[in-house]
């Protein structure tokens, strides 16, 4: 849909007059989603019908208009349609508006009253504006108090990520009719001064918010038609502004191509080639569990943006927390300074993580939190005088991030250690935990680790692994008793256990933390990804008091007790405040029930793929569903197929997997599974 949204600070501001004028100047159709206060009439066949006064007003001036929903009572839309036993919704109205605008080169969608005028119990006109994403022309009645109203409206519109294309001031008070005794304007001279000052003040104050004052419409009298030329003359700059916006890139397919061109020629994507990149899709916005592509298509999200967006996108609590914090203090260094967001997030995390974890280090990404964990382990062993314990033991198939220390403990084949053999320290690997999550535990699976530690424990600072679910290294679910067994082995040799819960933390596996499946507490734990609900980057490394104190008491020759790390953006207040809101949102939600439902729907939906040609294994745990293929998948082909099916699923290597937002409705999860089943049925994985 192309055009703009015409709204006002309030009712009776002259919005329809402005729409009518713009309709004439731009030859654009005015679409009125809801019209209340209609007139009852009978048509030529004697049938009762409702006439929309605003449509009449536009047509009288020579413009074109249509009202989609008409109601008799002159009240707010939500009440009018309640009285008519109907229900309006943003999604429904948006759909109807898009259909009505289909063949138009420019439409003017006209609101009803102000921004927060309700459409139903939950949604307002502002929500409709946000859904349509059109630039906004704001009509302001020039009267006492209008500066305040105009600025509040600008702020509200801009806070939804919309552009206020400009203001139109409208003199709605007949000059000589102002009541001399009204107190605020002692004489008509005073009144004129106030109204004129509104023009200059508003131009200045709105200008500071990058909103131009496009027109100042004088009092036109009751016979507007007689003043038509004057109105159109005054509105000409506003019409030009709308035309400029229509010509701007972003609405044009051509600009999308140039965007993709730049991307292709200058931007690296994760694990891709600069000379032969995989295709990318431009996402323009996100909402709930949907990615909205720039070409207008909407995809059901199956990835939660790599484990992060557990609440879906655009969660109100998270946005409110972020907005509040960014206004107060977005960032301040953590050296020598502390702040409430860091303390409150820390308190909340210590309340919910496995018992015994007691100290926190805020890192700026998951990989960095792993680096910090590795350093902690080495410093801990040094503090006890065990200088030789500089190595790590980890199962194959793990993934811990892309920085060097983290990479050195990733699966050596997946992580392409050969490429970096001169760069990476060498650590020790045991075979991938062979015992499936859903089969009886086989103690034999721990033998290799046991034998290794018997002979070489004195080289090992810590064992590091992802609890129960190995993520990016193969989406493998192993038996919790394996983790329990490793905990015991670590205790026996005073080796630390590091659990990397960056992917599994915050409910994904059905427990708040995957360690809970084994009932263990690691000595060090990393959290990231869903910690901030997908709003921004940030992570934390937690340690037990024993680890923190031992490092803290190290003698001068061994670091003097300092933990040697301190990123610039450590404990970024914006991150901490947002993460706190995300954790609270999760804990306040029925997340266990949601994850249980997702598990059931994924099991049902993916089951038909079991035993199909090309499929090696189908497995589901919590809100993670995996179809493992026999051959590596053709990413580009499968990706295109999934987008055509209306879903966002990013397969890689031998894996087609989904981990949808916890808030995903059943139909959408079924759609994700259906898309995978169709791909398998179509032989796309052979
Ligand atoms: C994603 C991930 C990381 C790395 O986190 P980044 O924020 O990408 O640096 C580390 N460990 C696990 C288990 C992960 O899934």
Automatic annotation (TrEMBL):
Residues binding ATP: 12-17, 54, 110-113, 170-171, 218-220
Keywords annotated in UniProt: Aminotransferase, ATP-binding, Biotin biosynthesis, Cytoplasm, Ligase, Magnesium, Metal-binding, Nucleotide-binding, Pyridoxal phosphate, S-adenosyl-L-methionine, Transferase
Pfam families referenced in this protein's UniProt entry, alphabetically: AAA_26, Aminotran_3
Protein residues bound to Mg(2+): 16, 54, 110
Residue numbers bearing the N6-(pyridoxal phosphate)lysine modification: 529
Its EC number(s): 2.6.1.62, 6.3.3.3
Binding-site list for substrate: 36, 306, 399, 529, 566, 650
GO annotation terms (biological process): biotin biosynthetic process
PROSITE patterns per the UniProt record, alphabetical: AA_TRANSFER_CLASS_3
Catalysis: reaction(s): (8S)-8-amino-7-oxononanoate + S-adenosyl-L-methionine = S-adenosyl-4-methylsulfanyl-2-oxobutanoate + (7R,8S)-7,8-diammoniononanoate; (7R,8S)-7,8-diammoniononanoate + CO2 + ATP = (4R,5S)-dethiobiotin + ADP + phosphate + 3 H(+)
Keyword Ligase: yes
Family per similarity comment: Belongs to the dethiobiotin synthetase family.
Stated name of the protein: Multifunctional fusion protein
Phylogenetic placement of the source organism: Bacteria, Pseudomonadati, Thermodesulfobacteriota, Desulfovibrionia, Desulfovibrionales
């Amino acid at each position: 849909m192309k055009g703009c949204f015409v709204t006002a600070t309030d009712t009776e501001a002259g919005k329809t007059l402005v729409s009518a004028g713009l309709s004439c100047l731009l030859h654009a159709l005015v679409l009125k989603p809801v019209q209340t206060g209609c007139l009852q009439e009978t048509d030529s066949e004697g049938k009762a019908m409702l006439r929309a006064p605003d449509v009449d007003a536009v047509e009288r001036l020579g413009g074109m208009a249509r009202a989609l929903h008409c109601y008799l009572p002159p009240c707010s839309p939500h009440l009018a349609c309640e009285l008519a036993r109907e229900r309006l919704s943003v999604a429904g109205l948006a759909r109807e508006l898009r259909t009505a605008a289909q063949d138009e080169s420019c439409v003017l969608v006209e609101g009803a009253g102000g921004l927060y005028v309700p459409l139903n119990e939950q949604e307002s006109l502002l929500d409709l504006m946000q859904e349509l994403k059109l630039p906004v022309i704001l009509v302001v009645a020039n009267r006492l108090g209008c500066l305040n109203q105009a600025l509040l409206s600008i702020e509200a519109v801009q806070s939804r990520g919309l552009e206020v294309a400009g203001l139109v001031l409208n003199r709605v008070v007949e000059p000589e009719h102002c009541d001399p005794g009204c107190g605020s304007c002692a004489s008509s001279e005073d009144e004129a001064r106030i109204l004129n000052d509104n023009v200059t003040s508003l131009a200045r104050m709105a200008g500071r918010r990058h909103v131009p004052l496009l027109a100042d419409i004088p009092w036109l009298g009751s016979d507007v038609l007689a003043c038509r030329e004057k109105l159109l003359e005054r509105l000409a700059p506003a019409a030009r502004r709308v035309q400029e916006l229509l010509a701007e890139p972003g609405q044009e397919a051509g600009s999308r191509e140039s965007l993709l061109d730049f991307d292709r020629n200058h931007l690296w994507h994760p694990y891709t080639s600069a000379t032969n990149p995989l295709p990318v899709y431009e996402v323009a916005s996100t909402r709930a569990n949907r990615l909205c592509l720039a070409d207008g298509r909407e995809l059901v999200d199956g990835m939660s943006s790599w484990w992060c967006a557990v609440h879906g996108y655009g969660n109100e609590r998270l946005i409110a927390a972020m907005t509040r914090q960014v206004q107060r203090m977005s960032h301040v260094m953590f050296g020598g300074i502390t702040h409430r967001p860091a303390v409150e997030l820390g308190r909340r995390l210590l309340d919910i993580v496995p018992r015994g974890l007691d100290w926190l280090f805020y890192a700026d990404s998951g990989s960095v939190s792993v680096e910090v964990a590795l350093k902690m382990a080495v410093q801990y062993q040094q503090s006890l005088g065990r200088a030789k314990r500089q190595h790590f033991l980890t199962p194959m198939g793990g993934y811990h991030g892309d920085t060097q220390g983290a990479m050195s403990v990733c699966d050596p084949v997946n992580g392409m250690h050969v490429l970096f053999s001169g760069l990476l320290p060498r650590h020790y690997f045991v075979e991938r935990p062979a015992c499936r999550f859903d089969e009886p535990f086989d103690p034999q699976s721990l033998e290799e680790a046991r034998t290794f530690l018997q002979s070489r424990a004195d080289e090992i600072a810590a064992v590091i692994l992802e609890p129960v679910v190995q993520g990016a290294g193969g989406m493998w679910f192993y038996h919790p008793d394996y983790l329990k067994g490793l905990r015991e082995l670590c205790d026996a040799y005073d080796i630390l256990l590091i659990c990397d819960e960056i992917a599994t933390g915050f409910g994904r596996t059905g427990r708040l933390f995957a360690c809970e499946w084994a009932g263990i507490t690691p000595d060090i734990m990393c959290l990231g990804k869903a910690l901030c609900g997908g709003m921004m980057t940030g992570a934390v490394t937690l340690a037990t008091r024993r680890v923190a104190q031992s490092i803290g008491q190290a003698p001068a020759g061994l670091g003097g007790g300092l933990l040697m790390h301190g990123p610039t953006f450590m404990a970024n207040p914006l991150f901490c405040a947002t993460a706190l809101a995300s954790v609270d949102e999760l804990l306040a939600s029925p997340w266990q029930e949601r994850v249980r439902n997702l598990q059931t729907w994924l099991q049902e939906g993916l089951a038909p793929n079991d035993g199909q040609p090309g499929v090696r294994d189908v497995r589901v745990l919590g809100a993670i569903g995996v179809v493992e293929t026999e051959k590596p998948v053709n990413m580009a082909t499968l990706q295109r197929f999934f987008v055509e099916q209306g879903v966002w699923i990013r397969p890689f290597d031998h894996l087609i997997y989904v981990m949808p937002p916890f808030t995903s409705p059943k139909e959408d999860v079924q759609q994700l599974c259906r898309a995978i089943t169709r791909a398998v049925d179509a032989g796309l994985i052979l």
